[in-house]
Design brief:
Layout lengths: L1 H4 L2 H8 L5 H33 L12 H20 L9 H11 L6 H16 L7 H18 L4 H20 L2 H12 L5 H21 L19 H28 L4 H18 L8 H9 L4 H20 L7 H21 L6 H17 L2 H12 L5 H18 L5 H8 L8 H6 L12 E5 L1 E3 H9 L4 E6 L2 E5 L1 H11 L9 E3 L8 E2 L2 E3 L4 H11 L3 E5 L5 E6 H13 L1
Parallel strand pairs: 1-3, 7-8
Antiparallel strand pairs: 2-5, 3-4, 4-6, 8-9
Helix pairs in contact: 3-6, 3-7, 3-8, 3-10, 4-6, 4-12, 5-7, 5-19, 6-7, 7-8, 8-9, 8-10, 9-10, 9-17, 11-14, 11-15, 11-16, 11-18, 11-19, 12-14, 13-15, 13-16, 14-15, 15-16, 16-17, 16-18, 17-18, 21-22
């Protein structure tokens, strides 16, 4: 018995249930280890490339000569073209948008080939100075590595969904060293739901991923931010103005992205070369737009540049980034959103100072980071926590909340815009917003509800075998004939035996279960790891009331009915 409880099969069986918390925590640890290890490899390679290419150190593209700033992104685009033309078309989908599509349409089964392409492509894009960030690739790689783990263990599909969330949280945590923001990001942006059972394994994965990366390659982003706060409550209107400003910038970002995506449906070489050329031309005058730009963000915390310079920097980054991302450069947009928000905040602070207000440019740069991230990603809580964990400044919570709420209201309700990731899906003809029914039924596997009280039999059996079947008192008889199966109520067989075979004495008399009067029900096989949502979809598609749950070897394990699924949903909705 103890040996069975420790077996992998028992582990899988427990995971079919929505409340398998101990098993989910174990998976959270494993997910954090796998995602953290992959992120350590990614960040180590990224740091080596940056130190090799840039004499001034990581992200110091400003030290490059003007012609190098033009050539770096162009050469990077050429390398990306070679990479993309050498791989199959299905392996080119990468990033958070790819993750969301796989999560909703493929039960979280993410291909390993796309993960490797994301790793190589992100390294090329970041090292060559494209105006992108490493957080999107980190989320994809973390989620894909966790999905790979679940697929290798043949875990139920409801568990794969949660594993993707664990990997995404670990990826954000490893990229930012912000475990709490990673947890909320996974819930708010990836899974689009908050559940008590989901929180704990995702928290464990984020912590483990963060620890692994800190032990191997050190801390990721350390902003040496001054401890600042608003001086007077009279500054709150200016904070709200910052929220409105960043909200409008997010709206413009959406507009530029969508229209570039619609217009520029060209070949990969054309799109990538255009992106590299545009980045290089802008970088000749504004080298700060190259890469993630974290060094520039920190500089805004300690210096007070002229307002005209800040305006130029803001426009350069804001106009360039959505265009090159829409052109297909395979990296993230979270870092650019922080950069745009920080520039906008610093510009507003500098303008306020010019008008005689006591507005600290560094403080408003911090607030702008969170407001822009929240508005663009539609993730207000994740943005607030990221801002807090990146600056280690609790004094910005109150004004940060005000700026984030204003920015989110502007984009979400003022203009009706979703997150930039869902806008990208919509631009590709997909809308993955889940109904409550889908969310509830995707959390549990069929193994958590299936009935095991059935008896298997062939279609032609002897009289004695028929009577033996009834002795066991099964709820259903599963009748097999070749590759087809159907359910027969035992009560119908009992009635037939009492009426038609009561006077039969030959125990070897043959009975054809296909011919006796009965209310037979057709069934189709469904793998045990499938979710209740997949089961319901199959039932509706084929107009079935029951499905046969089978193992990987197609051995019958149990039965599940539409009535059971409906009762489960109604019960969950009443809680």
């Amino acid at each position: 018995m103890p040996h069975r409880l420790l077996s992998l099969e028992h582990f899988r069986t427990r995971l079919a249930h929505v409340d398998a918390l101990p098993q989910l925590v174990v998976l959270g640890v494993l997910s954090g280890l796998v995602a953290g290890g992959l992120m350590s490899l990614f960040r180590g390679a990224y740091n080596l490339l940056q130190h090799w290419l840039l004499s001034g150190g990581t992200e110091n593209f400003e030290s490059l000569p003007e012609i190098s700033r033009l050539l770096f992104p162009v050469v990077g685009s050429l390398l990306l073209i070679l990479l993309y033309l050498s791989i199959p078309a299905h392996a080119r989908s990468v990033g958070i948008v790819h993750l969301l599509e796989r999560l909703n349409n493929h039960q979280g089964r993410m291909p390993g080939s796309n993960m490797l392409v994301q790793l190589l492509a992100a390294l090329i894009a970041l090292a060559s100075g494209h105006s992108v960030g490493r957080e999107g690739p980190a989320v994809h790689m973390g989620a894909a590595s966790s999905s790979w783990l679940g697929q290798r263990l043949n875990l139920p599909n409801n568990t794969l969904r949660l594993l993707v969330g664990c990997g995404a949280a670990a990826g954000i945590s490893a990229a930012f060293n912000t475990p709490l923001a990673g947890v909320i990001f996974a819930m708010e942006v990836i899974l689009l739901e908050y559940t008590l059972v989901g929180f704990l394994p995702i928290m464990v994965a984020a912590v483990v991923g963060d620890v692994v990366v800190r032990l191997t390659v050190g801390e990721a982003i350390v902003f040496n931010a001054p401890a600042l706060q608003i001086h007077e409550l009279s500054e709150l209107p200016l904070v709200m103005l910052l929220g409105l400003m960043t909200g409008l910038l997010a709206v413009g970002f959406h507009f530029l992205y969508r229209h570039t995506f619609r217009i520029c449906q060209w070949s990969i070489p054309t799109r990538f070369l255009l992106a590299g050329t545009l980045t290089g031309l802008v970088a000749m005058h504004w080298p700060e737009v190259m890469g993630s730009g974290y060094d520039t963000i920190e500089a805004l915390f300690h210096t007070q540049p002229a307002a005209i310079w800040l305006l130029g920097l803001l426009l350069a980054k804001w106009l360039l980034t959505p265009v090159i991302i829409a052109l297909g450069i395979p990296a993230g947009l979270i870092a650019p959103s922080l950069f745009i928000g920080a520039s906008a905040g610093a510009l507003l602070g500098a303008t306020g100072n010019g008008l005689g207000l006591t507005a600290d440019t560094a403080l408003y740069a911090m607030l702008g980071m969170g407001a822009m991230m929240a508005a663009l990603l539609n993730a207000p809580l994740a943005a607030l926590l990221a801002m807090l964990e990146l600056t280690h400044n609790t004094a910005i919570i109150l004004p940060g909340m005000l700026a984030i709420v204003t920015a989110n209201l502007t984009t979400r309700y003022g203009f009706g815009l979703p997150s930039i990731f869902h806008a990208s899906l919509q631009a590709q003809g997909m809308d993955l917003r889940q109904a409550p029914l889908t969310q509830v039924l995707s959390r549990a596997a069929v193994g958590s509800l299936m009935q095991r009280n059935f008896a298997e039999t062939e279609s032609i059996i002897s009289l004695s075998s028929a009577r033996d079947l009834l002795t066991a008192a099964p709820q259903w008889l599963l009748v097999q004939k070749g590759d087809n199966s159907f359910l027969l109520p035992p009560a119908d067989l009992k009635v037939w035996l009492e009426n038609e075979a009561a006077d039969k004495t030959d125990p070897e008399l043959s009975i054809n279960l296909l011919e006796i009067p009965a209310q037979r029900r057709d069934v189709m096989p469904l793998l045990y790891r499938s979710t209740l949502k997949e089961a319901l979809d199959l039932m509706l598609q084929h107009q079935l009331d029951y499905l046969l749950v089978v193992s990987n070897q197609e051995s019958p394990l149990g039965l599940i009915s539409k009535e059971q699924i409906e009762s489960y949903y109604n019960h969950k909705q009443s809680l």
